[in-house]
UniProtKB/TrEMBL annotation:
It comes from the Bacteria. Residues 24-34 have a biased composition (Polar residues). This is Uncharacterized protein. It comes from Paenibacillus qinlingensis. Residues 1-51 are annotated as: Disordered. Residues 35-45 have a biased composition (Basic and acidic residues).
């Protein structure tokens, strides 16, 4: 098993997301939409790569 030289990137992103405090409901919705957009784009980028 290889030793990791830096912190796990996924955990860094989760910690960053948890630190985000939306000012109001509109801001919270925009943050959530951005996350959804990234997930959707990621799904499109990986579509058809399973063989």
């Amino acid at each position: 098993m290889t030793k990791q030289k830096s912190a796990d990137k996924n955990l860094q992103n989760v910690a960053k997301d948890l630190d985000a405090n939306p000012a109001n409901a509109h801001n919270a919705q925009q943050i959530q939409q951005k996350v959804n957009d990234h997930r959707h784009q990621d799904a499109l980028n990986h579509e058809g790569t399973n063989s």
